[in-house]
Each structure stands twice: as C-alpha cells, then as structure tokens.
Specification:
Distance between the termini: 9 Å
Strand order of the largest sheet: 1-2-3-4-5-6-7-8
CATH superfamily: Metal-dependent hydrolases
Order of helices and strands: EHHEHEHHEHHEHHEHEHHEHH
CATH class: Alpha Beta
Number of helices: 14
Helix content: 40-55%
Structural class: alpha/beta
Strand content: 15-25%
Number of strands: 8
Radius of gyration: 17 Å
CATH architecture: Alpha-Beta Barrel
C-alpha cells in the first residue's frame, strides 16, 4: 500500500478540491497534519469516513506548528489547550508537526517561544504515549539537545528529513526510535537527502508528499499522485548504492510496514 507519512489534507483540499478522491483512488494511507482545531476536525471527518467505507486510513495528527509563534502568536494558548484535550480524548494518532524552524532572521527571533512550544508538545507525546512528528529547519542542534527525551518517545518521525546521514545514524545510536521521511527533496536533486535515502536502513524509511507544499519539479503543488514517483526515485537511489529496497514494489511494501510501526497502526 502507498503511504504518506506527512500531508495537510485541509490545505490540500483548498488548493486541489479532488485531493481526497485522488487519495482514495490510489489507496494511499496518510498521516494528516493540522495546526488549527478546524483543520484537525476536517481531517478527523475524512478519517471517520474512510474507516466507515473501507478506504485507506487517514491518521489525524495535531500540533502548533513551529512557525506559529511568528505568524499566529495569539493562537498558541488555544492550540496547546486543544492538543491536550485531543490527546486526553484519544483522538490523536501523533503529536505533530512540531519542532523548530530557524530558517531566516524572523523565525530565529522566535526561538525561545519555539523552545517553550516544543517542550509542551514533547511532554504531551510522552505523557500520552504518542508518536511525535518533527519539523526541523536549520535546527538539528535543537533536536540533539532533546535526544534523551526523544529516546523515550514511542516513535519519532522526521518530516522531510533535514539532516545528514551521520546525524541520522547518531540519533539511532542514542536510542531514538527514529523514522526518516523523504519526498520531493529526493526527487528534485537535494544531494544530502538523496544520500540519506540511499544509506539509511530500509526499516527506517518513510515516504511523504507534505501536500500541497512540496511539489516535485514541474508541479504546482504536491499530492498523493507523487508517491509512485517518490518511491521509484528512492528505489533507484538504493539500487545504485547496492541497498535493499531497490525496486519500487519492495520499497513500497517496506515503507508501508514502517508507516504502521511508526504510527502504531495494526493489521496488514
């Protein structure tokens, strides 16, 4: 089964109203990210509809995005309140996306607020036994500062893996149950992303679209339709490196198993 470890169904639907119909047609499971209660409830409705119809699952996730201290500072208290209420009610598949965004001076000015926000999200993930989905731009040092706590998390999914192969290996050595997600960057020629996609253990790989935000080259937006291309690109990289997961079919099967393991999804 195709699997999308990180996407934004509410935003995708605004850009491409046929996004959910396409996802169902392709049979792609996804972990949906939302940073407002309205968007979370949209994703949750899709999740319930998919479950009732036997369609591929949608796993609803929620967090205050690390860009929110700059862009929507007045919403942070409500977002944290919603996070804890949703987790307490058992409505979350994961906490995320959360983390750090230090790309650009404006975001760096909110670093302390991001630190406080991440501490709240990490605490919720640990308290409720949930996986955590991490966004990190120019911020791997911040991730490593929390590696001891991250090693206690059920699973840590790195959205659009931003680090190096050595950093990924170091996290695994520190006992972090890390899964590394790859999407357009592995198709569009980002060298370190391609190197990591080829080098990491097969049991640690995930695929994602970040729909609608990370189109492959030539696209206006990303969608589930990009997943076969991402798989083929990743399999080609692994084939060239002599690694397992060197055919798109083998890689798709392995990634689906990793998706289930990362998000605690039972069944086949």
């Amino acid at each position: 089964m195709l699997s999308d470890a990180h996407c934004h169904p509410a935003d995708a639907a605004r850009v491409f109203p046929g996004a959910e119909a396409e996802r169902r047609r392709l049979g792609a499971a996804c972990a949906s990210s939302a940073s407002t209660l309205e968007d979370f409830e949209f994703c949750e409705r899709l999740s319930l509809e998919a479950a009732s119809s036997g369609a591929a699952p949608i796993l609803p996730c929620f967090a205050a995005h690390p860009q929110m201290p700059l862009r929507l500072p007045g919403s942070l208290a409500d977002s944290l309140s919603a996070l804890n209420a949703l987790a307490e009610a058992g409505r979350l598949a994961a906490v995320g996306e959360t983390g750090f965004d230090l790309f650009g001076a404006d975001f760096r000015e909110t670093e302390k607020a991001q630190d406080a926000l991440f501490a709240e999200h990490l605490g919720a993930a640990l308290r409720f036994g949930l996986p955590i989905v991490i966004h990190a731009r120019r911020a791997m040092r911040k991730v490593f500062a929390h590696s001891r706590a991250l090693a206690k998390c059920r699973a840590v999914v790195f959205h659009s893996w931003p680090g190096t192969a050595a950093e990924g290996e170091a996290l695994l050595r520190r006992g972090v149950n890390a899964f590394f997600s790859f999407g357009a960057s592995a198709v569009n020629g980002r060298r370190e992303s391609m190197r990591c996609c080829a080098a990491f253990p097969l049991g640690r790989l995930l695929t994602e679209t970040d729909a609608p935000y990370q189109p492959t080259r030539g696209g206006d937006f990303s969608s589930c339709a990009d997943l076969p291309r991402i798989l083929e690109a990743a399999a080609s990289l692994r084939r060239a490196a002599g690694r397992d997961g060197s055919s798109a079919g083998e890689l798709e099967e392995a990634v689906w198993g990793n998706f289930r393991a990362a998000f605690g999804l039972g069944g086949a």
